[in-house]
Design a protein that fits this description.
The chain is mostly helical and about 100 residues long. It has a domain at about 1-70. It is built from two helices and no strands. The chain has helices at about 1-45, 50-70. The chain is rod-shaped and about 135 Å long.
Amino acid sequence: MVQLARYALNRRRRLVLRRYRRQRTWAALGLLGAGGALWFLWQKRDQRPAWLRKKERKQARRKTAQRARTQRPSRPAKVHVQKGASTKLKVPLGDQVE
C-alpha cells in the first residue's frame, strides 16, 4: 500500500514538473518571439511604407499648388523715372546690379 501511495505521489510530482517545464518553454519562446519582432520593427523604424510616402508626396504637391493659387500676385518693384529724362542708358549693364 505504501508503494502504491509513493508511486502515485511521484507520478503526480512528475506531471507537475512536466507541466511547469512546458509552461517555462512556451514563456521563453514567447519572449524570444516578441524580442525578435521588436528588433525587426526597430530596424525598420525609419522606413515608411511606399503607399504612405506616395500619399505624403501627393499631399505636399497639393498643398504647394493651393498655396500658389491663393498667393497674391507679386507686383514689380517701383522704378523711379524723372520727367524729361533721356531714354538712353547712361550706365553699362554690368554695373547696374546693386
